[in-house]
Description:
Helix content is about 20%, strand content about 35%. By secondary structure, the chain is α+β, with helices and mostly antiparallel strands.
Amino acid sequence: MSRIGRxxxxxxxxxxxxxxxxxxxxxxPKGFLTRSIxxxxxxxxxxxxxxxxxxxxxxxxxxxxxxxxxxxQNMVTGVSTGFERVLEVNGVxxxxxxxGKNLMLYVGYSHPVEVTPPDGISFAVDARIRQIKVLGxxxxxxxxxxxxxxxxxxxxxxxxxxxxxxxxxxxxxxGKTGKG
Length: 180
């Protein structure tokens, strides 16, 4: 049995879960998410917990068991508390600022890069320490938007300029040396 797949998903107060066939809907104070669970698995509500069960030990079903449980847990966590990803802007003259809901990035191009957040995503900027927070209730979308922001100006290894995740370590390279 999968160690992750067999753990029950605790449903916090304020979160509603609806099962309609293979469609699972999760509604909470932060938002609403819907996803279909694989048809090989069964989801059941038991004592305020959601339990994912698998009928067989087929390798395909076993591989889906833990993944489906983790995705549903992320849905429940997202609609109840939400997710955030923090990025850091490094470089002389590099900065980020909010213009309404949109994020304006000034990262060494001849023009500012404007990023419009999709529904369910918001940005928070701390200009003093040059950090960008991507906030939302869908973990997959928060991670994708953060990756898109990082790809605007990825960090370079010589001076460390660019946009990087806060926990990311940039391996620095030595520059050119003069003639000896």
